[in-house]
Amino acid sequence: MADLAAFVFMFVTLSMLSCFQSFHVVAHEWPAGGSTRFYDFRVQTMRVTKLCNTKEIVTINRMFPGPVVYAQEDARIIVKVTNETPYNATIHWHGVRQKLSCWFDGPSYITQCPIQAGQSFTYEFTMVKQKGTFFWHAHVSWLRATVHGAIVVYPKTGVTYHFKHPYEEHIVILGEYWLRDVVQLEQQVLASGGPSPPADAFTINGHPGPNYNCSRNDVYKIDVVPGKTYLLRLINAGLNMENFFAIANHKLTVVEADAEYTKPFTTDRVMLGPGQTMNVLVTADQPIGKYSMAMGPYMSAQNISFQNRSAAAYFQYLGAVPNSISLPAKLPNFNDNLAVMTVMDGLRSLNPVNVPKQIDTNLFVTVGLNVNKCRSKTPQKNCRGMNNGTFAASMNNISFVKPTISILEAYYKKIGGQFTVDFPGAPLQFADFANGAPNSAPNNTQAINGTRTKVVKFGSRVQLVFQDTSTVTTENHPIHLHGYSFYVVGYGTGNFNPLTANFNLIDPPYMNTIGVPVGGWAAIRFVADNPGVWFMHCHLEIHQSWGLGAVLIVENGKGEPETLPHPPADLPRC
Ligand code: C2O
Predict the structure, then answer these.
(1) Ligand 1 centroid distance, CA of 179 (Å)
(2) 543: Cβ below 6 Å to ligand 1?
(3) The whole model's pTM is what?
(4) Which pLDDT tens digit goes with each residue over 243-295?
(5) 170 lines ligand 1 (CB under 6 A)
(6) Domains in the chain, please, with CATH?
(7) Among 494, 500, 486, 478, which residue's Cα sits nearest to residue 548?
(8) Which of 431, 423, 432 lies closest to 455 in space, CA to CA?
């Protein structure tokens, strides 16, 4: 017994130390058994200078990007989050399915009230049958811009990858950087009724690279040994843009998407929407030199201004002349929808999977923008959307409004007045969504406000078809579902037609965020076997702020293994 205690103590100590590891580590050996990982997250402000500008940003432990959470499949992760800033905070563990632990999921006003200044909350969950690259991020206001970091979950001891073990692995976080305070920025954008200004720079692991003002030396770099193969864990933690990623003269082989294995697929570039993660292999098989690793915009919407310059990092061979010019990476055009489709077509589950064939709950959900009529007495100030209206966004034309306490708490404690259960399973009005939805903004592009949820029975086999609308503009929307991974059984352009839609029920990818094609549709399937209150929303932050979301409530099943436990004692209060 004493030995065991000593071992546990030692392991816990080691776990805490690992908070301070740098994040390009060589994959290491792991002690056997279901382990527990402890982390101490302090939400703290920090002064940083980027693009010749010094400002305060909100971080975890004064790191940007934040500390990496390392674990192993089936491990328990415990993170105490203490808020030492004046802002409200929560942390969401993106892609973690939170089996029977919905209380620890993190989206503000959905599963918890924010952690207020000076308060703390301890998140506890298990990586049940999950491994791969995930990330954590703030899920309140626009703090995610700087409050984010990777979660790396290794296979169980002795279990190998489905590809040759890489020589080294590196985390590559794609981000967006604003010189303005992002909490104020959200408020200002919402108050204006208009669009969000673009980010001041894209970043790779927090570094913009040489293409921006004053950033020639603010560059992330990976040193590589000629001939070796590297695993890059790509994470898009950006707010409002989808991004292409490519390395000059090098092929990328995708082996995992959204923390699930895929059939190896080799490509010149990938596209990740915010909320998506992807593991790619890169072999240093080119002449010794300095190659650019670049992140550029994918903008499928019309008439939106966006950051057009790409962020660049270096993929630098040992022996390359340090000050040499780097070879530029070839990124697709910002509007190359075909390049995006090609990446999607390449994503297949590694092995045949068990897709629900019979469906109990069939939902059809439109996703898109709205323009509401101006209600302000100062339209020049507050109605800067299209045709002097105010921008909004919706699912089935319902614009999601956050309640004043969390929906989970209201549901669990049967507190009335916080939400309704009438989220429609289909649009209230059908139209040619993809090509000609009502578009006389703001006269007939009005959304209905509501905190509406859809209640689903435990064990239901759900199919959900997302349909992009052309109200204001068609656009690729990265739709994320909390609490589940889902099979992406089909997608296409135009309007969804059940008679002609082609479904892959053999080896569809198992994802948690699906980029619904611009002016098109995507169909997902999953079994609702995880009780709780689960947010489903566009991971473009501005769309979420405008209401592009809805909530699924999955009821308890029978007995303890199918029932959500009691809330933790330290659950934050609003
Ligand atoms: Cu990564 Cu609800 O978010």
Answers:
(1) 23
(2) no
(3) 0.94
(4) 999 999 999 999 999 999 999 999 999 999 999 999 999 999 999 999 999 99
(5) no
(6) 34-154 (2.60.40.420), 168-346 (2.60.40.420), 361-562 (2.60.40.420)
(7) 478
(8) 423
